[in-house]
Amino acid sequence: MLRTSRIVFGVLAVLFLVAPLIAILPLAFTSSVFLNYPVPSYSLRWFVELLTADVWRRSIINSLIIGGGATVLATVLGTLAALGLRSRHLPFAGLFRTIFLLPMVVPAVVLGVGMQLCFVQIDLASTYLGVIVAHSVLAIPFVLVNVSASLGGIDPRVERAAASLGASPTTVFRRVTLPLALPGVVSGAAFAFATSLDEVVLTLFVAGPNQRTLARQMFSSIRENISPAIAAAAFLFIVGTLIVGGMSLLVRARLRTRVVMPE
Amino acid sequence: MNVALRGRLVGLALVAPLLLFLAGFFVWPLVTMMQGAVSDPIAARTLPTTARATANWDRQSPPTPEMKAALAHDLAALKQDQVVGDLTRRLNSAQSGFRTLMSRTMSAVREQGPDVDLSAVDKRWNDIKFWQPIAEAAASRYTDRYLLAALDMDRDAAGDIVTLPESQSANKAILARTFFVSGLVTLFCIVIGLPYAMLAVSVTGWLRGVLLAAVLLPLWTSLLVRTAAWFILLQDNGLINRGLMALGLIDRPLALIFNRTGVVIAMTHVLLPFMVLPIFSVLLAVPRNLMPAAASLGAPPLRAFWRVLLPLSVRGIVSGSLLVFMAAIGYYITPALIGGPTDQMISYVIAFYATGAANWGMAGALGVILLVATLLLYAVYQRLASDKAMGI
To answer: Structural domains in chain A?
Structure first.
């Protein structure tokens, strides 16, 4: 009896978690104008719509520009800070770390209201740079956590060994620390990109009509006129996430073999 | 240079860029938002003479001719319509009737100059009811009225804090709704997440892999995609309603979307991973032979669960609940897309005041409440996360 109920519960719970994500995928290929089952016949018309209709195409391009910018900015700032936090001599390291992780905690709407008020004063409202900055703030904690984790996994004896063999601190950093930390930097960057891609709330507050991202466009499309283009966009999202995730895993694996194998 | 000093300088130099970046684009916006909640500069800035003239007024006796002359003088100095509009809106929010009174007075002042007799323009200028808000607003650049209004309170004519009548109060209901929906979502997450985590710990190999992947996959998927997916499933002729109708369980679609049911279902789905993962990691550390030990000592499974496994998982449940509740109270997207007008939570109201009504005071005040609640929950969570001995 207990065994059966465990199996039933397990199956139902997995269904609850995964089924919605699977249910949306076939609708991306519907030929109907309704976002609904049954699918009358399959076609690629909604992908064509996504790539040709001006609002959708523009929003995809915007998402790539803003996502790329936010990834670079967040990864550089987050990696530098993670390296700084690693120093044993740094004062207030705990306080700094708490502050750096706070953007993950603060409700997006609250931050959005403040950003809207501030960005107007410094002419960042409704600009690409403004949206990139806003997304970077949210993405930085993910970079920091990932890079810190991979830095924490470095055996300090390796660095000391390099130093004792005559390597200068810069060389140690360049030839030992950085290659070992790189997998964390790569996953951090992947997280940063995913965060930016999925961001809606801050975008609502700081972006103008010209900076509409794919997520923002999906949000208003679900709200105003829902069509299977949403499912097609969702399909792209899921595929995009898989590609970015897969790529970061691949790069990590390659980096790891390169570090282990002596040149 | 000694090693410690050098290390400290290098560390600070590496941390500094992010520190400056967050000071400018994270702390400054939050401070500005909070300032918006307490700042009220318009009357103090535009009515300096009136502020001096009303400074010693007891706010009960009739308005003096000096006060009227001071106000006429200040109003005559206002050249921009935008500023007049802001001032009128501010005064009208404290006392209705200012809109007509101000437009009549402004045209009289602009025609006849600063020496116009206000009582002759409109006899409402003899009523202290219209002078109290002016004296109040002109006295200071800061106010607690937005914060009070966020909790459905106000100051009466004497300056005492009073609770607004039911008919005028909406914010407490929204706060209560926010906490209720978040609590409900947290409860459902426990009810599903605890057995799920226990199941995942009790199996091994590919089964555990599947169970964990089922939790991680939604976590990795875009929030919008998940919300859109629920939108499709929950609509009147969506898969759930069709399935139930095909099974003959219902003969007309259940209302699952644009109401509380849909919001709770979708939010539970979105936040469930944050409950499962902490409980899972806590349970993973529990020795596997405890349950068999309890059984061998004669405890039936339910009793063994109640007395052994549940107390051991409390730490995970509390961490998970704090995470889920904290995330839920700030939720915007899912209720906005799946909920109806009566299911909107505090984030929606903040966004409405900010973008719809351009009422930065109210947006800021409600934002302060949400921010403080979130940070308190986070502080408790941090305390628990660093205190390893808790719960056992």
So the answer is: 46-229+239-260 (1.10.3720.10)
User: Which of the 8 DSSP states describes residue B164?
Assistant: P
CB contact under 8 A, A201 and B363: no
Other residues' Cβ atoms within 10 Å of the Cβ of residue A77: 24
Of A202, A244, A191, nearest to A74 by C-alpha is A191
B162 bridge partner residues: B154
Q: What is the ipTM of this complex?
A: 0.90
Token pair 């979105």 is found at B270
How far apart (Å, rounded) are the C-alpha atoms in residues A66 and A16?
33
CB-based contact A17:B217 (threshold 8 Å): yes
Q: Does B218 touch chain A (CB under 8 A)?
A: yes
Cross-chain residue pair B7–A200, CB shorter than 8 Å: no
Q: B253-310, pLDDT tens digit by residue?
A: 888 888 899 999 999 999 999 999 999 999 988 887 887 888 888 888 788 888 888 8
A237 in Cβ contact with A197 (< 8 Å): yes
Q: Pick left, alpha or beta for residue A87 (phi over 0 → left; psi -120 to 50 → alpha; otherwise beta).
A: beta
Burial class (CB in 10 A: 0-12, 13-18, 19+), A1: exposed
Q: Which residues contact B331 (CB under 8 A, 6 or more apart)?
A: B182, B267, B345, B347
Look at strands B153-155 and B161-163 and give their pairing. antiparallel
